Fold this protein.
Amino acid sequence: MTAWLKQPGFLSPYGTLGADMSYVLAVAFTVLFLVGWRFARRRRGQAHHVVTLSAMAAMLAYFVAYYVNRGLGALAFEGEEGFGGPPELYESLFRPLLTFHILVVTIGLILAVYMIVLGFRTSVKRGEERGLVAGSPRGTALRFTGWALLASVVLPMALFGVRVLFTNPTIGKFLGWLISGVLVGLGVIAIEWVGRAIYPDGERRHRALGTFTMILYVLALLTSTATYVLLYVIWPPLIG
Ligand code: HEM
């Protein structure tokens, strides 16, 4: 699989198939999020719900599948070893850019999980349309914390179980899944408590955190475009 992903790509002089596919999907997901955002701004809650939820679910599934095959941190590693430009540009531009990009993507993924659940806790369907409801989101923060902790252990274990059907289980892989799941879970729980303190009202919280999430996705696309150009368009990468 790794060898297949490292074949020459189709977008740029030095891109690999993995990098090009990843970039095309990043653009596609961001366009879908922007379409979902536009629906929300035009008060078309049900269309917003369908587009945003499908795009988020596809993005999370893709993220898990892609990074399982390439190994977590592949991008960071590729940047370290593969940047073909001048070394001073690596330190002054490329490294800060990549660090910022990884930070934005990590926070964006945790917010995606949180926002999907918040969407169901703060909206109701009235006839054909869906609207946000004022007041506290459904379920107390403590109940939310309990469910989030349970899911952060059960879901990665289920994914590890599926993975074991195709590869040999190792304690490292087991811990990798478990620790990643629990870290995402703790991130989601932290957002709930901070979000609740700042915006006790569910409708306001959904609009405010939702707008922040959408802005993060635009930043993620801008920084991944810059990273892609620096890695694969201007200079040949150092490693193939
Ligand atoms: C990552 C996921 C999501 C993000 C980033 C997001 C973002 C947003 C934003 C920014 C708004 C406010 C737009 C504005 O007034 O300026 C909004 C409104 C809304 N969202 Fe979401 N949302 C997400 C998921 C969901 C889900 C899963 C549901 C339903 C289950 C949902 C239901 C709604 C509804 C009903 C509105 C109100 C639309 C209106 O004003 O009539 N959202 N969302």
Residues 37, 40-41, 43, 45, 48-49, 52-53, 56, 112, 115-116, 119-120, 123, 130-132, 206-207, 210-211, 213-214 surround protoporphyrin IX containing FE (CB under 6 Å). DSSP finds eight helices and two strands in the chain. The mean pLDDT is 91.
